[in-house]
Amino acid sequence: xxxxxxxxxxxxxxxxxxxxxxxxxxxxxxxxxxxxxxxxxxxxxxxxxxxxxxxxxxxxxxxxxxxxxxxxxxxxxxxxxxxxxxxxxxxxxxxxxxxxxxxxxxxxxxxxxxxxxxxxxxxxxxxxxxxxxxxxxxxxxxxxxxxxxxxxxxxxxxxxxxxxxxxxxxxxxxxxxxxxxxxxxxxxxxxxxxxxxxxxxxxxxxxxxxxxxxxxxxxxxxxxxxxxxxxxxxxxxxxxxxxxxxxxxxxxxxxxxxxxxxxxxxxxxxx
Length: 271
Prior knowledge:
Elements: E1 2-9, E2 12-18, H1 28-35, E3 45-50, E4 56-62, E5 67-68, H2 72-86, E6 90-95, E7 98-106, E8 109-113, E9 142-145, E10 149-154, H3 163-171, E11 181-189, E12 192-199, E13 203-205, H4 209-221, E14 228-233, E15 236-243, E16 246-252, E17 254-261, H5 263-269
Parallel strand pairs: 2-3, 4-6, 10-11, 12-14
Antiparallel strand pairs: 1-2, 1-17, 3-4, 4-5, 6-7, 7-8, 8-16, 9-10, 11-12, 12-13, 14-15, 15-16
């Protein structure tokens, strides 16, 4: 049997498997089986903890079984768990995105440095060379890479966008060969953004850490805000600070429950 934890960051929910003490290999088929909200547990992302050169290595799967190099809210949730486990208030985590630093932020909040944003077309990546600040798409969205691709639309009122229809239209846009996360956002006030998210390989989510970072970077590049902003998502608030050493994200986490997958279930999703 395989233990797991259920966690969320502002309703952006995760199943976390600590594989440091097991030789089990998570596959795309297993991730899809666990992701099913009727036949499995359900998640926006599955995160697997393994041993690495730092305090731990994190691997992320989307609900459709595809992988993602970054998942900001899951990283914060796992960082909080590892801090409580080790007593440390600063962690060095490794991901396919690169090395990340997580720190205790006080008042139950956890901060993670998500690294420098990717602003060049081939880093994001886009299908061809172009200005990433304003893409040749209706609405002139901004493209940003945070270890995964993002497409941010600044609109008059994010609440009025039919995200379930709008999101998939641009997730699969030909300019994004690896598909993209899609954000719609508007300014609430100085350095204060309201944002909603369609996640690549998942759908509408209540929050997204990497999307929040990408939106903050896009807003600063466009001169709409400074580099330190508050972002209100459907599930709550994150604080983003684009510093010289990377994009820092701060917010709350929740460890909901711990459980164990049965052998019967694991066999059913491994076929």
